[in-house]
Give the backbone structure.
Amino acid sequence: MTVDFQKLQDEVSETRQLVRALLDRLNQPTSESLTIEDSPLTAQQAADFLGITTATIYDLVHNRRIPSHRPAKRLYFLRSELMEWIKKGRRSTSEEIEAESTTRKTRQSRTSRGAVA
């Protein structure tokens, strides 16, 4: 049995190119992954996603405290908008509050010293 090293090198090179192409395709976002993120959710699905009751969902919508869409008298939510809504509700940690308080006191101190001088 004879081994053709040139042919072997060519096959290895082609295999590498195929693997790179596959990896590139796997790393690219697909239209399906984008549509899942922005696919409309019903009130029940939104409630399940947020871990709250549908009654709470309707109350939040009624008080305009949550982003929603109402085409043709049906209520829908976008998952991406719900995630942004959750992020906006973030509360500061006690360390962040303390740091902000210290910064404000420092600014007030500088301002009052500047006004006296």
Residues 42 and 76 are 5 Å apart (CA to CA). The chain is about 70% helix and 5% strand. Residues 37-98 form a domain with the Arc Repressor Mutant, subunit A fold (CATH 1.10.10). The beta strands are 40-41, 77-78.
